[in-house]
Write a structure and sequence with these properties.
By secondary structure, the chain is α+β, with helices and mostly antiparallel strands. It is about 20% helix and about 30% strand. It has six helices and 15 strands. A hairpin with a 2-residue loop joins strand 4 and strand 5. The longest helix has 15 residues. The protein is globular. It comes from Rhizobium herbae. InterPro entries: CAF17_C, TrmE/GcvT-like, YgfZ/GCV_T_CS, YgfZ/GcvT. This is Folate-binding protein YgfZ. Keywords: Transit peptide.
Length: about 280
Amino acid sequence: MQPIALPDRAIVTVSGQDAQDFLQALITTDLDLLDDDEARPGALLTPQGKILFDFMVTRDGTSIRLETGADQAEALLKRLTMYKLRAPITLSLTAPAPVTVHFEEAPGAYRDARFAKADKVVYRAYGAAGEATGTDEYERLRIASGVAVSGADYALQDAFPHDVLMDKNGALSFKKGCYVGQEVVSRMQHRGTARRRVVIVAADTALPATGTALTAKGRTIGALGSVIGSSGLAIVRIDKAGDAMASGEQILAGEVPVTLVLPAWTGLDFPAEADEASA
């Protein structure tokens, strides 16, 4: 596939001698594990542990770059400024920012860790924009890889990191110490209470629109997120989905029968409703 320019992206850059220490105490990503040529997912959470902002984290020399959606960039900058106080750092915003996706190694590009988990090769480059060839092929790959994004698949301030597989894709640290919302996500991890998860949805016909309810036994178990043709993503209660599968009940997206698959790279499975969900 040819390089694709992603629309509506922005970058918040954190510079200065304490840039890493500043962010390490705020965001979910463990920056000590971030390689120079890697783009890792991450989030800034609410104190209640829900995703307030999500982004891709990369190094730019001694600075740290947070690539995010243009619709949340100014609010992210404002929130970081609130935490800044007297820290010797500088915050800057580039919006819109040229972000190009490559499907092979490219000079100066960063390997996207989310796709690497699914054994797919995707690189992100910053600077000159790539060809504006449309993003359908990228979206198909994203869906097939089980990579959820805010807006299309979940609403900010409405999802926990576990819901969107951040505990599995390198976005969430349980070892680096405190950060905003850390107590809640740590408790979910150690108690194994994560039951809402991203699944890959497939049908024999075209799927209905994003937001359509997924039901089993007449009960809503989730809702469709990203959709292209007969494939999509959804966040569902995997215990309820597993219970329906175990009893041979059909799962519907609106009126369309569907099958649900947990991304293989997660190591998760569908428990019966009475069982503990894998986490």
